[in-house]
Design goal:
Helix content: over 70%
Strand content: under 5%
Number of helices: 14
Mean pLDDT: 87
Distance between the termini: 6 Å
Number of strands: 0
Largest sheet: none
Structural class: mainly alpha
Radius of gyration: 22 Å
Order of helices and strands: HHHHHHHHHHHHHH
Low-confidence stretches: 1-18
């Protein structure tokens, strides 16, 4: 492990232990554009659903199944953005801009290679994936068509992840927002034109999204090319560095796998309690995920700022920044919880008409609100350790805490099937298991933060 201290970094860009307002402005300058870019992602699927929904129930169901498969594939590769953000910011903090750009370029080559492999695997696997996800018979051909066409969009999507990581690491967060918003507008226009005037149906929706994703990838490649020219870095792939980047990303990939297991297991357990429970769980999860965008924005700011401060060797500033970030995460968590509580009387009737689903959704949303302050701390500390490059600990913690959730969910499921909890009591038990999972994550992350073992300064961790 090589450590190198350097103070080469502009005071406007790196963490500072100065007055209160400077840190807050720096956090917001990174978090707010990140929030906008994050919000654009669910808008893609929302626009696709709104357009395909006019074709009928079967095409819409096919889109839903194919979208779930695609989102799983792409979300499993989010380490491309997270790992690149931390490594680029650390090198930049150490005063090595050329090395930072080179690291980002290697990350983009890794993303392209991984995307091509996944696309090649997705084409023949599409029918099997659709069967695994239990698509209704009428929706199967639409799901397979959408998935096969969308396979061509996987390499661009992964390039976008890696390109986003470069810009976040360089603290250039407005460009990802512009690319995301432009991509959303292009996606909506192309989908409409290809689905209706061109008459391509679901295939047109998939093709429009692929074209929009390709355009976004081209924009990031262009930005990276300009950075390469200005810094003197090399554009061609460095195979040894790409292999090293892949090895360093393996731990973050394992962390992501653990998170995905928790998400999929919660849906499976909810399904065991019946239709009412699944409907209420889906609505509550949508609210939970929407609030997660706000907390993710702070976590992304933490990744870039913590990594740059550690690269610069400014431990005092990093600790001061951590305290300020924790304050922001506490405020965001409390605000999110208060927002859910205040909106339950209005939101639930708007979301659903069935009285049983309404009642259960309102109950579960009380727990969603209760857990938000906990979520604020968890998301923030997760971002801090990602920025610090502490991937191995995050992977281990992810596996342990996921095991805690699975045990708690299984206990609730046993009570629900043998102890007479029913749909309502069973789903409430599941959400208490989710709360326990978040508490376990906070304990694991907080312990690591307290030990200080994550604080490794210099250009390379």
């Amino acid at each position: 492990m090589r450590r190198r201290r350097s103070s080469v970094s502009s005071p406007q860009s790196r963490p500072s232990s100065g007055r209160w307002g400077e840190q807050d402005r720096l956090i917001l300058r990174l978090a707010l554009p990140a929030l906008g870019a994050l919000a654009a992602e669910p808008l893609f699927l929302l626009a696709d659903s709104a357009i395909v929904g006019h074709l009928g129930a079967a095409p819409l169901a096919g889109l839903g199944v194919a979208g779930a498969a695609l989102s799983t594939v792409v979300n499993m590769c989010v380490f491309l953005a997270y790992g690149t953000t931390g490594s680029v910011a650390r090198l930049l903090g150490a005063g090595d801009r050329r090395g930072a750009i080179q690291q980002g370029v290697n990350g983009m080559w890794l993303a392209l290679a991984l995307g091509l492999v996944l696309a090649a695997a997705l084409l023949p696997a599409a029918p099997a994936l659709v069967r695994i996800l239990h698509a209704p018979p009428a929706a199967v051909p639409y799901a397979v068509t959408y998935l096969r066409i969308s396979a061509a969009g996987v390499p661009p999507m992964l390039l976008v992840l890696a390109g986003t990581g470069i810009l976040r690491g360089l603290h250039a967060v407005r460009a990802p927002l512009v690319v995301a918003v432009t991509g959303f507008a292009a996606n909506t226009a192309l989908n409409y034109l290809l689905v209706f005037p061109a008459g391509l149906g679901v295939a047109g929706s998939a093709l429009g999204t692929v074209l929009a994703q390709a355009g976004m990838a081209v924009a990031y490649v262009a930005v990276a090319a300009r950075a390469v020219r200005s810094s003197g870095a090399r554009a061609r792939p460095d195979l040894a560095a790409i292999r090293a980047a892949g090895g360093a990303s393996a731990a973050l990939f394992l962390r992501t796998v653990a998170l995905r297991i928790y998400l999929l297991a919660s849906v499976w357990v909810a399904g065991r309690y019946g239709t009412v429970a699944v409907a209420a769980h889906t609505l509550a999860s949508n609210v939970w995920n929407l609030l997660a965008l706000m907390l993710d924005a702070l976590a992304i700011a933490a990744q870039a700022l913590i990594a740059r401060g550690l690269g610069a060797g400014d431990v005092a500033a990093v600790r001061a920044l951590l305290r300020r970030l924790l304050g922001w995460s506490a405020a965001a968590g409390l605000a999110g919880g208060a927002l859910v509580l205040a909106s339950i009387p209005v939101l639930v009737p708007v979301l659903v008409t069935d009285p049983d689903v309404r009642a259960l959704t309102a109950t579960v949303l009380l727990l969603v609100a209760l857990f938000q302050p906990l979520n604020g701390a968890v998301f923030l500390l997760d971002g801090v350790l990602i920025g610090a490059g502490d991937g191995r600990y995050l992977a281990l913690a992810g596996l342990v805490t996921t095991a805690v959730f699975l045990a708690a969910a299984a206990a609730g499921l046993a009570g629900g099937t043998g102890g007479g909890l029913g749909a309502g009591g069973g789903l409430v038990a599941l959400w208490w298991a989710i709360g326990l999972y978040m508490a376990a994550r906070l304990a694991a992350l907080g312990l690591r933060i307290r030990t200080g073992a994550w604080i490794v300064t210099g250009a390379v961790r």
